[in-house]
Specification:
The complex is a heterodimer of chains A (107) and B (120). Chain A has 107 residues and is mainly β. Helices cover 0% and strands 50% of the residues of chain A. In chain A, strands 2, 4, 5, 6, 9, 10 and 11 form a seven-stranded mixed beta sheet that branches. A four-stranded antiparallel beta sheet of chain A has the order 1-3-8-7, with no helix packed on it. Chain A is globular, with a radius of gyration of 13 Å. Classes of the chains: A mainly beta (107), B mainly beta (120).
């Protein structure tokens, strides 16, 4: 199975900060990578797919990049509603796998 | 508006069975693949099972192979997950989700989830 490793697992940030989350695949997955946001008690929300394509309705402060094994999710100017946990997901393999999650907390 | 509503969760003992349902509305159900994803309490997301629009392709996570069966009824706009031989580590919130397309195998709409608790 393809293993997805996110870093960091959690960190604190302030509104207005530029934040970057990294996701590394255990083998090359081309650009078959998605990012989701999840808030406590809620279902995940799709943010980005194909590594860098913004899902409809997602604010442009979110962006994704990378291919192969290394990927990043960037939030250009953190807003209060962005404090949440973020997951990457590979779909290169029919057996999807998610990263362990990165929790963005209020500093 | 796309809606997915899970039902059938509850408390069961180890070794017992449970069937989850997911009622869909707001889109052409028969045109989309669907998936189940679970989340154990306080843990991350774990993909469980996938079914294509016509049920021709089914994939399951190794952790549930031989115990869980995904199915769908396109006439009833419903997705199912039959869970047999349940174990304590199957305790989780189970989400059904719509898959964007065969080319983009990501989940764009999710239900609210159904809690399954396996405990004696």
């Amino acid at each position: 199975a393809i293993r997805m490793t996110q870093s960091p697992s959690s960190f604190s940030a302030s509104t207005g900060d530029r934040v970057t989350i990294t996701c590394r695949a255990s083998q090359g997955i081309s650009s078959y990578l998605a990012w989701y946001q999840q808030k406590p008690g809620k279902a995940p929300k799709l943010l980005i797919y194909a590594a860098s394509t913004l899902q409809s309705g997602v604010p442009s402060r979110f962006s994704g990049s990378g291919s192969g094994t290394d990927f990043t999710l960037t939030i250009s100017c953190l807003q209060s509603e962005d404090f949440a946990t973020y997951y990457c997901q590979q779909y290169y393999s029919p057996s999807w796998t998610f990263g362990q999650g990165t929790k963005v907390e209020v500093k | 508006e796309v809606q997915l509503v899970e039902s059938g969760g509850g408390l069961v003992q180890p070794g017992e069975s449970l069937r989850l349902s997911c009622a869909a509305s707001g889109f052409t159900f028969s045109s989309y693949s669907l998936t189940w994803v679970r989340q154990a309490p306080g843990k991350g997301l774990e993909w469980v099972s996938y079914i294509s629009s016509s049920s021709n392709t089914i994939n399951n996570a190794d952790s549930v192979k031989g115990r869980f069966t995904i199915s769908r009824d396109n006439a009833k706009n419903s997705l199912y997950l039959q869970m047999d031989s349940l174990r304590a580590d199957d305790t989780a919130v189970y989400y059904c989700a719509r898959v964007v397309s065969s080319a983009s195998q990501v989940a764009d709409y999710w239900g609210l989830g159904a809690l399954v608790t396996v405990s004696s």
